Automatic annotation (TrEMBL):
This is Tail-specific protease. Belongs to the peptidase S41A family. Pfam families: DUF3340, PDZ, Peptidase_S41, TSP_NTD. GO terms for molecular function: endopeptidase activity; serine-type peptidase activity. It comes from Blastopirellula marina. Residues 251-334 form the PDZ domain. One of its GO terms (cellular component) is outer membrane-bounded periplasmic space. One of its GO terms (biological process) is signal transduction.
Length: 709
């Protein structure tokens, strides 16, 4: 077997990226009370507020026309799509804007393309200013209804939960009535959770005041990101503009480390809530040193101070991104947190020394599963969970030999498996939404000898194969690639290549996500300086742009159709509307010519047919899969409902059924394991994958014996 370790730090392919979903729009949901006459904030302040964004807007329009795969013009069609997407982002249920607002805005429906090219972003500000105005008005409506209206919970009426099924309110009376139904729905939800009516009213009132406060804190960068992404994603769902803050978060995710306290935070009713403490992070270590300063999931952070004696700043009602910025900081510096344990009692001050946080949950992890075969023999199966094809881009650009890469981490696991006598490997890509194209190619190369992994076509219809150039395989034994409808992009490259080469079998949902496009990240600061690779380019954010399509060695595209499993298993994800075809404006499917590559017979049709027969028998008699199938049937019944009953008796019956289903989903389909050392959830699904793997090893051996005879 060839030694390929020496080549893994050499990046032979361009740094392109493949992702499941568009870059996240600015998150706009924090909390607490806002005075009725509070002034607008964020992007509404300052006489020269539009100067930087005008320049960014012009750059984005030029890059779209220059580089996008479609070569489509920035025209009225894009303008109309962007118009609809921008308004839907702010008001998806049509609760805030009025028919008159939309009629006024519609004068720009066919003009956004021209405005973007010229750098004119006034439309974004006009819409946002009106949204601020309507939000404050709706908060007043909420206050009045909660204080003065007597809600009739015995009345038969419904609240429509699909914004596409309703019109914008024509007048104040229609708007008030729609909010009456919205609040009735909110109150019923709180009552179902055990709150009294007064408690429910108080909580809901605070929630809408909180939302208004958060909207008022929207920054210039956040508004521009939402607006420009409305335009870019009108080309395809994966072309997005990233503000400087979003770009930094993206880079953190790709390099799997940051400097801070090591805690995941969320916003809840105006408070910064700890959702998870990362094992081995600064907060975790501090809690082990001093039990009085143990930060835990469910704790509320109410104030933040810098250093050992810096002023404690109240962060209640502060936008979550701003709180996170205050808590993050350079390693070996101190941040002080004012903490209410589980949101209750007196505030305690925690002194935490920031440190480099390794995002271990997002890196490749492996575990050896010991099993007994039908003839009583012991078998070791190596299970690798790979959440993404990660790559530290900054380290890669600088030529750092210690670059953080998924290929290197998986290679270490495979070497360990070989040394410990593992007989088969399961590569779990069920929650892998993509990542680096370089990593997809090099990591696939660990399982094939040599040859094309993926073909890439550009806007000029030129097709180029990208090959694994390393002779030999690090793992040449039985291989099972585990996929789901959430497996996308880079995952589909690997799964498709393994299937085409006949190197292993694909097990999981009937097909993968179906994203067959390639994105690259254009740093606008670097683009501004014409690729001069400056040490400190201006911080202008980045355009993640679709510029190529990829195809399997066989010439098949995964776009829209995904990779079909050799052995499919029932799963809730297979029935969810989360595939590429469920997104707006996906790139169409096509094919290219087959390229030359060696084919093995490890997924021969008779072998796959027998695996399906054996698995089907087990699934049919499995109690776990039986419960899952019932849950899927219930889910399908509920999925297409576009309204909810507001009669209390009907609501409570449906709410109880939905709650039970959610509990079943958690137990059957799987919440993340709380133990960071556990790679797999040992449930009925895991058992079936292991049984398929054992059958696969046995049938491969029989196939080998038969071919030798």
């Amino acid at each position: 077997m060839a030694n390929v370790r020496g080549t893994w730090t050499n990046l032979r392919h361009p740094i392109f990226f493949l992702f499941t979903v568009a870059a996240t729009f600015a998150t706009l949901v924090v909390a607490s009370l806002i005075p009725k006459d509070a002034p607008a904030q964020g992007p509404l302040a300052g006489p020269d507020r539009h100067l930087p964004e005008r320049h960014i807007s012009r750059m984005v329009s030029r890059l779209l026309l220059r580089d996008h795969l479609s070569s489509a013009p920035l025209d009225d069609t894009i303008s109309q799509r962007a118009f609809d997407k921008f308004l839907k982002f702010w008001d998806p249920l049509k609760l805030y804007f009025t028919e008159a607002d939309i009629a006024e805005f519609s004068a720009n429906r066919n003009l956004l393309d021209d405005q973007i090219r010229s750098g004119n972003t006034e439309f974004a500000h006009k819409v946002f200013e009106r949204f601020i105005q309507r939000t404050l008005e709706r908060v007043q409506t909420v206050d009045d209804l909660l204080a003065n209206h007597e809600f009739n919970f015995e009345e038969d009426e419904v609240f429509v939960t699909d914004g596409d099924k309703v019109k914008y309110p024509a007048n104040a009376a229609e708007a008030t009535d729609r909010w009456r139904k919205r609040l009735k729905y909110d109150l019923l939800t709180q009552l179902a959770d055990g709150k009294t009516l007064e408690e429910a009213k108080e909580r809901i009132g605070k929630r809408y005041h909180s939302y208004a406060r958060r909207i008022g804190q929207t920054s210039e960068d956040e508004l521009l990101e939402v607006y420009l992404t409305s335009v870019t994603s009108a080309y395809d769902p994966h072309t997005t503009y990233m503000s400087p803050g979003t770009l930094e978060n993206f880079n953190i995710q790709m390099r799997l480390n940051l400097e801070g306290i090591g805690a995941a935070l969320m916003s809840e009713d105006g408070f910064c809530k700890v959702s998870k403490v990362i094992p081995g992070g600064a907060a975790d270590k501090q809690g082990k040193k001093n039990a009085e300063e143990k930060l835990e999931a469910g704790d509320f952070i109410v104030s933040v101070g810098q250093g050992t004696d810096g002023e404690m700043v109240d962060v209640v009602d502060m936008k979550l991104n701003d709180v996170v910025d205050m808590i993050r900081g350079k390693a070996n510096t101190v941040v002080r947190l004012g903490v209410k344990k589980k949101g209750k009692g007196e505030t305690k001050i925690f002194n935490i020394t920031r440190a480099k946080v390794e995002l271990k949950d997002s890196e490749a992890r492996g575990e050896i599963v010991e099993q007994t075969t039908a003839d009583g023999q012991k078998m070791k199966i190596g299970w690798i969970d790979l959440p993404s094809f990660y790559l530290d881009m900054e380290a890669a650009r600088s030529g750092n030999p210690n670059v953080k890469r998924s290929t290197i981490d998986v290679a270490r696991l495979l070497e360990d498996f070989r040394q410990k006598g593992v007989e088969a490997v399961v590569l779990d890509l069920r929650r892998n939404g993509g990542g680096s194209l370089t990593e997809a190619i090099d990591l696939t190369g660990l399982f094939i000898d040599q040859g094309p992994v993926v073909q890439v076509k550009d806007a000029d219809n030129n097709v180029h194969p990208y090959e694994d150039m390393n002779r030999g395989m690090l793992w040449d034994g039985p291989l099972v690639v585990l996929t789901s409808k959430m497996s996308a992009s880079a995952s589909e490259i690997l799964a498709g290549a393994i299937q085409d080469y006949g190197r292993g079998i694909v097990v999981g949902d009937e097909q993968t996500h179906g994203k067959g496009t390639v994105q690259t990240l254009l740093d606008l600061g670097r683009e501004e300086l014409m690729g001069a690779n400056p040490v400190n380019p201006p911080s202008l954010g980045a355009l993640k742009i679709t510029l190529q399509k990829f195809y399997r060695p066989s010439g098949k595209s995964t776009q829209l159709k995904g990779v079909e499993a050799d052995v499919s298993l029932p799963a809730l994800t297979a029935n969810m509307d989360i595939a590429e075809g469920d997104l707006d404006y996906p790139v169409p499917f096509d094919t290219v010519q087959t390229t030359r590559y060696p084919v093995s017979n490890a997924n021969a049709a008779p072998l796959v047919a027998e695996l399906n027969r054996l698995s089907g028998q087990r699934v049919q008699s499995s109690e776990g899969f039986s419960k899952l199938n019932k849950m899927i049937a219930t889910y399908l019944e509920q999925k297409d409902k576009k309204q909810v009953d507001l009669n209390k008796q009907k609501f409570m019956a449906e709410y109880e059924a939905l709650s039970e289903r959610e509990k079943e989903i958690e137990s059957l389909v799987g919440e993340a394991d709380e133990d960071p050392n556990e790679v797999v959830d040992r449930d009925y699904y895991f058992d079936e994958v292991i049984n398929i793997t054992k059958d696969y090893v046995r049938l491969l051996e029989q196939q080998k014996v038969a071919s030798n005879n």
